[in-house]
Write a structure and sequence with these properties.
three-stranded mixed β-sheet; Enoyl-CoA hydratase; ClpP/crotonase-like_dom_sf; Enoyl-CoA_hydra/iso; globular; catalytic activity; Enoyl-CoA_Hydratase/Isomerase
Length: 276
């Protein structure tokens, strides 16, 4: 098992665990005793990893999954208890603001990561875990996974998650899920557009993941990064300007090393040199 140079020497909290096979990095949420509930330490560790690998073209994809049969049960209640004490001592709500906004920054960082982000969803996919699912590029799920936005039932808001849920499934469905606090399984998650594929058992889930990784490897590293960035831009930029810039990127790709290698590999009926 190799370790990317960009991750060498990175000191991480044990709330996550990393595994790397070639250009595929798996980030395990590693708090099984709490169904991988997301603590501030976990948020910080995830941010550190994505910051370290942002410019590392050798890492093609990041697989996010949870230990012990659960993806993520949402925010850590113990952290919330600590924030109450901090807020009471300071006489200010700022500790809550800072904590919540930090989580939103992490979600946005994962959303904008240049690597292809794949989530493997099992067990609890609630609150913050639901938010992570909504910023993935590819989401696969067990049919028995339990999704939901339980915040309103706890007297709080899905404050940092809401924009990403709306982008994923649309406003009308997001309203229904958030306002009713509905729970639903992997099959309904496919119907809603939260996930792309659902598996009937653990063996099928691993087979789907293996197939997705093989497909990721077929995509040229730089072309994949640039395509993801272009897709993000379609939501925010004027069309004519975007298409002009996209044409320039296309020309550079065709004349670049990946474009030439991809063309030759197609003609010669072989795998391109980035497929490993």
């Amino acid at each position: 098992m190799t370790v990317a140079t960009s991750l060498a020497g990175l000191a991480l909290d044990d709330s996550i665990r990393l595994e790397q096979q070639g250009g595929i990095l798996t980030l395990w949420l590693n708090r099984p005793e709490s169904r991988n509930a997301m603590s501030l330490k976990m948020v910080t560790a995830i941010q550190q990893v994505f910051s370290q690998i942002a410019d590392d073209v050798s890492i093609r994809a990041v697989i996010l999954r949870g230990q012990a049969g659960h993806f993520c049960a949402g925010g850590d209640i113990k952290d919330m208890a600590g924030l109450r004490i901090e807020a009471a001592n300071s006489g200010s709500l700022q500790p809550y603001v800072d904590f919540n906004r930090r989580f939103g920054a992490m979600i946005e960082q994962v959303d904008q990561a240049p690597q292809t982000v794949v989530v493997v969803l099992e067990g609890a996919v609630l609150g913050g875990g639901f938010g992570l699912a909504c910023v993935s590029d590819i989401a696969i799920s067990r049919d028995t996974a339990q999704f939901g936005l339980p915040e309103t039932g706890l007297g709080i808001l899905p404050a940092q998650i809401a924009p990403f849920v709306v982008k994923r499934i649309g406003l009308t469905q997001a309203r229904r899920l958030a306002l009713l606090g509905l729970r639903f399984d992997g099959k309904m998650a496919v119907d809603l557009g939260v996930v792309h594929q659902v598996a009937q058992d653990d063996i099928e889930l691993e087979q789907q993941l293996t197939e997705i990784i093989q497909q990721i490897k077929r995509a040229a590293p730089l072309a994949s990064r640039n395509t993801k960035a272009l897709l993000h831009r379609t939501l925010n930029e004027p069309l004519e300007q975007l298409l002009d810039d996209a044409a320039q990127q296309f020309a550079q790709a065709v004349g670049g090393a990946e474009g030439q290698e991809g063309t030759m590999a197609f003609i010669q009926k072989r795998n391109p040199n980035w497929f490993d």
